[in-house]
Amino acid sequence: MGNFRLQKVEHQITQIVSELILKGEIKDHRVNSMLSISAVEVSRDLAYARIHISAFLKDRELGEAVEGLNSAAGFIQRQLGKRMRTRNTPKLTFVRDDGISKGFEVTQKLKELNVQQQEPGEDDPSGSDSHT
């Protein structure tokens, strides 16, 4: 199957599953609208799809949300089957993606380093002792 076709299917899955999460159609109490789909990987034969989930949640809460999505995978797969125009609907697996939280941590550390570098010190060229 062509790469373009796989990308199109991945995009459709992202849209449909995002909509199900956002509208609260997944009735598992562990799944909330703060979840985000960071990536979808579909096998070449469309038999399997791995959906990466991230959020600004605590580690435990994100893990529970992914468990909730995996327990609702059958329902979500049926919804995909109704809305997609493919011969087969892929079997879904949800995995946690810590990319957003890791990126946030790195950004915070960079900000802290920047603040430390901007504090006046002995080597600060903008200090009152500089000669022009």
From TrEMBL:
Chain intervals for the UniProt region annotation (Disordered): 112-132
Subcellular location: Cytoplasm
Top-level taxon: Bacteria
GO biological process, one term: maturation of SSU-rRNA
Cellular-component GO terms for this entry: cytosol
One Pfam family matching this protein: RBFA
UniProt cross-references to InterPro entries, sorted A to Z: KH_dom-like_a/b, RbfA, RbfA_dom_sf
A GO MF term: ribosomal small subunit binding
Keywords tagged on the record: Cytoplasm, Ribosome biogenesis
Main location: cytoplasm
KW Cytoplasm (keyword) present: yes
Keyword set includes Membrane: no
Gene3D superfamilies (alphabetical): 3.30.300.20
Stored HAMAP family: RbfA (MF_00003)
Function: One of several proteins that assist in the late maturation steps of the functional core of the 30S ribosomal subunit. Associates with free 30S ribosomal subunits (but not with 30S subunits that are part of 70S ribosomes or polysomes). Required for efficient processing of 16S rRNA. May interact with the 5'-terminal helix region of 16S rRNA.
Subunit field text: Monomer. Binds 30S ribosomal subunits, but not 50S ribosomal subunits or 70S ribosomes.
Family: Belongs to the RbfA family.
PANTHER family given in the database record: RIBOSOME-BINDING FACTOR A, CHLOROPLASTIC-RELATED (PTHR33515)
Annotated protein name in UniProt: Ribosome-binding factor A
Record organism: Salinispira pacifica
